[in-house]
Amino acid sequence: MTELKTGGQHGYLRIATEEAFMPEEAIDLYAEVLDGPDPDPGFVSLWGFYLRSTDERSRFIRESLIDLGARRLADMDARGIDRQIIALTAPGTQILRTDKAVALARLANDQLGEACLAHPDRFTGMAACAPQDGAEAAKEIERAVHKYGMRAVIINSHINGEYLDNPKFYPVLEAAEALDIPIYIHPNTPSRDMIRPMLDVGLDGAIFGFGVETGMHALRLITTGTIDRFPKLQIIIGHMGEALPYWMYRLDYMHRAGVKAGRYEAMKPLKKEKISDYLRENYTITNSGMAWEAAIKFAQENLGIDRVMYAMDYPYQCPAEEVAALDAMHMSAADKKKFFQTNAERVFKLDGQGAG
Amino acid sequence: MTELKTGGQHGYLRIATEEAFMPEEAIDLYAEVLDGPDPDPGFVSLWGFYLRSTDERSRFIRESLIDLGARRLADMDARGIDRQIIALTAPGTQILRTDKAVALARLANDQLGEACLAHPDRFTGMAACAPQDGAEAAKEIERAVHKYGMRAVIINSHINGEYLDNPKFYPVLEAAEALDIPIYIHPNTPSRDMIRPMLDVGLDGAIFGFGVETGMHALRLITTGTIDRFPKLQIIIGHMGEALPYWMYRLDYMHRAGVKAGRYEAMKPLKKEKISDYLRENYTITNSGMAWEAAIKFAQENLGIDRVMYAMDYPYQCPAEEVAALDAMHMSAADKKKFFQTNAERVFKLDGQGAG
C-alpha cells in the first residue's frame, strides 16, 4: 500500500474531483429558507439536519465546508490529496429566491476564486450560478471562468423541481459549451414531486434518493434530446455514475423499444443510436462515495478507461482508509494514473495549474 | 455458441424465473380502472398504453400474456427455455379495489395452477394474492401452494403507494416465511407520490422508474427492520437486483453514517452489520431485462455466485439472441449451470417437478 503522501512519488497525483465548500453566509440564507413558509421537504431533511444537528459528523461537515484555507489543506495533506476540484455544495443557490441565488453564486465564486488564486497548486474551482435566471447565470459562469480560471460549472441537480432539459436553462448549457467546460451535476435530495416515499423511511439522502434524483437528471438530458441540441456538452456525474453505467443494457433496450412503439410524446429518436453512446461520449463519472474497486473496474471496462475519475466527496466522506484502499486496487499503473490524475487533468484542462 | 434447444444437452437446463402472464379477465378489470375516477398515473402510462396501443410490440405482449398453453410452449421451445417460473404480471391485483383484487388473485392462481398441473415439466407458478387484505392474502397463498404447488409469492411492488414494510402486509410475509417460499418483488410504475418527474419525460417505466420503485421497495424492507422481524424471509428481485448490488458500498457507508448520527426516526440499528449482509443472505436477483455478461458477472462476484439466476422477462423482452448471448458468456460450466439452472432449482425447490 502506498503511503498517503502528496507529490506523486508513488506514480500519480491524487486529484479529488467532487469536493465541496460553502460560504459561511449561506448558513443564514439556509436558516431563512428552513424557517420560511412551506420549505422544500428534501431541503428540510438535508439542511435542517446538517445545520442544527450536534452530532460529530454534522459538526465536522459544517466546519470543513466553510474553510478554504489551512484546515482544508491540512485535511488534504493528511489524506494524500494533491488537488481538490471544489464546488459549492448542494443545494447551493438552487433553493433560494432568484435575487438571493444570484448574489450567493457571485459570493461563492469570489470566495472560491480567491482561494484558488491563493493556492493554484492545490485548488481548482467549479463556477456556481443561479440557473433560476438563465441569462444572468451564463454571465456569472463567464465571469468566474475569466476572472478565476474556473474549470467547470456546478449544478446541484433539480432547480425547484425543474431540470436542465427545460429550455429556460439553455443559457447555462450554451455557456458551458461556448467556454468548453464540463457541467458537474451533483446530487440533491429529490424534489417534492418525488421524495415522499423515500423521505418517510429516511432514504431521501445519499443512501438512495441522491442517486435517483441525479441519475434521472443525467438521463433526461439524453432522452429529451438536450445533448443532441448541445452535442459538445460534457457532463460529469459522481457516485459511480449514479448507477447509469450498471443500467446501460436496459436503458438501451427499453429506449429503443419505447421509441419504436411511439409510447411517449417526450421520447423521440435521438441522433446517436443508443443511450450508452451518449454515456460513453458525453459523460464522465467519478467514484465519489464509492471507494470500491469492483464498481470502479466495472465502469472503466464498460464506460471507458478515460471516463472514470477519482473523487473523495470531502467533507461528507473522507476517511484516509478509502484513499489507501484505492491506492491498493489491482490495476495497471497506467490505468491507475488515468483514474487518479490524468483523466481529471484532461477533463478540467488543468495544464498550467501546476498539476500536470 | 450452443443451439437454442431445450433438454440440457449443452450442460444445463434454462429455467427462466421472471416470466409473466395474466388472465384475459384482467383486461376488463383494467379498462374499468382506466375509465374510473382519478386513475393512478403510472397505471395509465403502463396499461393505458399496452391495452390500447396497436403497435406490434403491444399486440405481441397482450396476446402472449394471456396464453398458458401451446403459444407459450412454442415460444419457449423456439428460445430454448426448459421451464418458466410464471407470475401474474404487474400491477396484478394491486391496482384494484380489495374485493376485485381478492377475486383476481384467486382466478389467476386457478388458471396458472391448472396450467402448471397440465405441464409440470415446463411451468412453475408463483402465487398471486391481494395484499390489500392481509389475512385473506395469507389464506390465498397457502391455498395456491397446497393445491397447485406454487413455489413463490409475487408482489408487484407498491400497493397503492404502500410497501411490504407496512405492518398491514405482515400476514403476507408471515405466510411466505411459514411456507418457506420466497417473495418475488416485481417492478411496477412508481406511485403517484413519486412518479411525476419521471412521467413527464417518459422515464416512468422499464427504462428507469421500475428500477427506482422496486429498488426502493427492496431496500425499505432492510432499512425499516422488516427483514430483522422476518429473518428467514427470502426476497427475489429482477433486473440485476434493481441496481442495489452496484450501490452496495454506498448503501453500507451511508446507512452506517445515518444510523450513527441518529438522523432519522425510521432508521435504527439493524441486527446485521451492513445492508450488504442482507442483500447477500436474504436476497436473490435475476437478470431479467439485462442479458449482459458484464453486469451478471459483477453481481455474481459481489453478491455471490448462488445469488444470481437467469430470467427472460417473457413476453416483455424475449429475443432469442439474448439467450444465445448468455449461452456464450465466458464463465465456467459450473457457474453457468448455477446461473441457468441449479440456483433456481434451490430457490424455488423444484425437486420433483422434473427440472432436476
CATH class assignment of chain A: Alpha Beta
- Measured as a percent range, the helix fraction of chain A is 40-55%
Gross morphology of chain A is globular
Overall pLDDT of chain A: 96
CATH superfamily of chain A: Metal-dependent hydrolases
Q: What is the N-to-C order of secondary-structure elements of chain A (H for helix, E for strand)?
A: EHHHHEHEHEHEHHHEHHHEHEHH
CATH topology of chain A: TIM Barrel
Low-confidence region ranges of chain A = none
Give the topology, please.
Two copies of one chain form a homodimer.
Chain A: E1 15-21, H1 25-35, H2 41-52, H3 56-65, H4 70-79, E2 83-88, H5 98-118, E3 123-125, H6 134-148, E4 153-155, H7 170-179, E5 183-185, H8 196-199, H9 209-223, H10 226-229, E6 235-237, H11 239-242, H12 244-261, H13 275-282, E7 283-286, H14 293-303, E8 308-309, H15 320-327, H16 333-347
Parallel strand pairs in A: 1-2, 2-3, 4-5, 5-6, 6-7, 7-8
